[in-house]
Amino acid sequence: MSFTSTKMMQKAGVVSRTPVVRSAHQVRQQARSAKHQAAPSVVAAVVPQQQLSAAARRASLACRVAAAEAPAAAGADSSSSSASNVRGDIRNIAIIAHVDHGKTTLVDSMLKQSKVFRANQDMAERVMDSNALERERGITILAKNTAIRFKGVKINVIDTPGHADFGGEVERVLNMCDGVLLLVDSVEGPMPQTRFVTKKALALNKKVVVVVNKIDKPAARPEWVVDSTFELFMDLGATDEQCDFPVVYASGVNGIAGMSPDTMSETLEPLFDTVVREVAPPAVAFEQPLQMLVTNIDYDEHKGRIAIGRVSAGTVKKGIPLSICSSLEPGKVRPGKVNELFVYDNFSRIPVEEVQAGDICAVTGIQDIGIGETLCSKESPVALPTIKVEEPTVSMTFKVNTSPFAGKEGKFVTSRNLKDRLDRELERNLAMKVEPGETADAFVVSGRGTLHLGILIESMRREGYEFEIGPPKVITREVDGHKCEPYEEAIVEVPEQYVGSVVELFAQRKGEMQDMQPSIEGTTRLTFKIATRGLLGLKNALLTATRGLGLLNTIFDSYRPVAGEISMREQGSLIAFETGQVTAYAIETAQERGQLFVKPGDQVYEGQVVGVYNKSGDLKLNVCKAKALTNMRASQSEKKVALDEARIMGLDDALEYITDDEQVEVTPLSIRIRKDPSAKPSRGGSRR
């Protein structure tokens, strides 16, 4: 809380003239102690809520919550009999945040300080990001489980993705936890994904502990961040109790935390203490029949499918027969058996004989188990409510490769191979859908965004698959008789001198600016509402307009009426005229037409896109033309033309580039763009 806000509250009579309060926990403790000296029930009436700053409203709210808790505390003795139905030795938490706000780094420090690793053990950075793609891209893609011990309490920790496209992972794992650590960057504050994951946690009534991370940054502004987070809670319709969130300040990379940014501990112990104190222990029903909702699926070459979930009631034991059912298929029950049973402890799976209600475990031996199904006792097969995630917003067409180079570089090339792989993906990726395409060898795959689908494509090509991808398309739906398309909230951080270029770029794509605020170090934060269709291919255009200095973050907002035709790409493509090997002689003249994707020695085929044309429309040219040989010696005065460096198109670049009449050829060795033989030729700038 800022000094100015405190003075305002003192003047209004909201708080007494005490030292500056900086954290939500201190605010609440001060309010609770003042409750015994004065009547806090009238605090809310002193000043209208809308006239107070965010910090002042938080303090006023803490007083109201403290007053409301007094009767509950007085009657605590009468409810002591229910206390035995909780697992006081366990806490289940998930760590949620916007991308790059330091979740996995914080987990690294938590694992180190809980003595999970030996003192001489060499531990890699971001140890939870075990997937190769996660390490390459520096983001978390899959939710993962681990556990640490603190003062006799086992804390099950779930590390979740931070990118909006992988929000389905977050929605699934929230079913396993009782509270969440909401990490917020000490400079950036709440971002689009922060809003999404917070909304889900509040809707499930999970206890939220706000962690202002990266507090060691020179430009850190923790007071503004806490106030902005409080405003976010208010905007999401949080209750008074939810808005009275505890705050911990931390630096994950340095492994320090504190209840105030000015008084930091040398360890993360204040964070551990807050988790144990604020997050409720799991409520359990030991005597009830077994119920365990499968929330995640893992795979092991020797053990097969591994079902992961939290035991809601009863006890699951190794070797026992059980029943499997789902709320989506009432009355349908099939048998199963637990071959092996594991719990998470100290960054590994520990085999155990039984797991009681309240703990998170992994079960093997059921090869047809799926996410959202319930493991029950044979005597009482009652399914728990299944897991629901938000619908996909973007689709792409996957189909068998039909280019002239088809089958030369891939191991799995048939439609059956493609279908089997997509079916396996559906078993664990609830946010994805697969439907039949227009032909027998085509499949329409829907997901949360181009990154969500792009990770699947990259994973498949690394596994040896060869196929073609159509351009991304938004999924429309009927709302009140009107055709609507998905809209997203886009936040752009950009240096002040490029604000005009960004506003113009979004205006061309029918974006509406909602807010413009000064940020830090000469940057401005712009907020837009824009159709998802307008975001397709925007990343490269934004980097060009801002000289590579613009940062874009988006999150799904709502479905709105279709925005109409949107201009996507003004430049056309350079298309190979014939099949053959690219020559330096041909590139000398071809590079004058635009930027090329190929270099001398590359193999190309007729119809392949080999570059970006400087003008609108497409241009066919011959990049395989060889210099005619004669008996005349070349003149020494002939000038040698320097060849421009070819632009290497990665998968993300290709998906950003293609338009309606183009497609991407994906193989384990190459990424090529080609014109769709079945599409009409382009006659001008690309529009969608």
Automatic annotation (TrEMBL):
One of its GO terms (cellular component) is ribonucleoprotein complex. GO terms for biological process: gene expression; response to cold; ribosome biogenesis. HAMAP family: BipA. NCBIfam families: small_GTP (TIGR00231), TypA_BipA (TIGR01394). It holds the Pfam family GTP_EFTU. SUPFAM superfamilies: EF-G C-terminal domain-like, P-loop containing nucleoside triphosphate hydrolases, Translation proteins. Residues 88-283 form the Tr-type G domain. This is Elongation factor Tu, chloroplastic. CDD domains: BipA_III (cd16263), BipA_TypA_C (cd03710), BipA_TypA_II (cd03691), TypA_BipA (cd01891). InterPro entries: BipA (IPR006298), BipA_C (IPR048876), BipA_GTP-bd_dom (IPR047041), BipA_II (IPR047042), BipA_III (IPR047043), BipA_V (IPR035651), EFG_III/V (IPR035647), EFG_V-like (IPR000640). Residues 1-39 are annotated as: Disordered. GO terms for molecular function: GTP binding; GTPase activity. PROSITE patterns: G_TR_1, G_TR_2.
